[in-house]
Amino acid sequence: MTRLIADIGGTSVRLAHQHGDDDALCDPAVLACADFATVDDAFADYCAKHKLEIDMLCLAVAGPVTGPQVDITNNHWQFDAGKVAAAMNVRAYLLINDFTAQAMAHRDLLQQDRSLPTNHRQILRGGTPDHSTPLLVIGPGTGLGVAALVPAGDAVQVIEGEGGHVSYAPRNPAEEIILAHLAKKLGHVSAERIVSGPGLESIYHCQTGNHRPAPDIGALALAGDEAGLAAVRLMLQSLGTVAANAALSLGARAGVVIAGGIAGKLSALLGDSGLIDRFDDHGRRGPYLHSMPLYLSVDPLAGLRGAAAAIDNRYLARRIILV
Question: Lower CB density within 10 Å: C or N end of the chain?
Answer without folding.
Answer: N
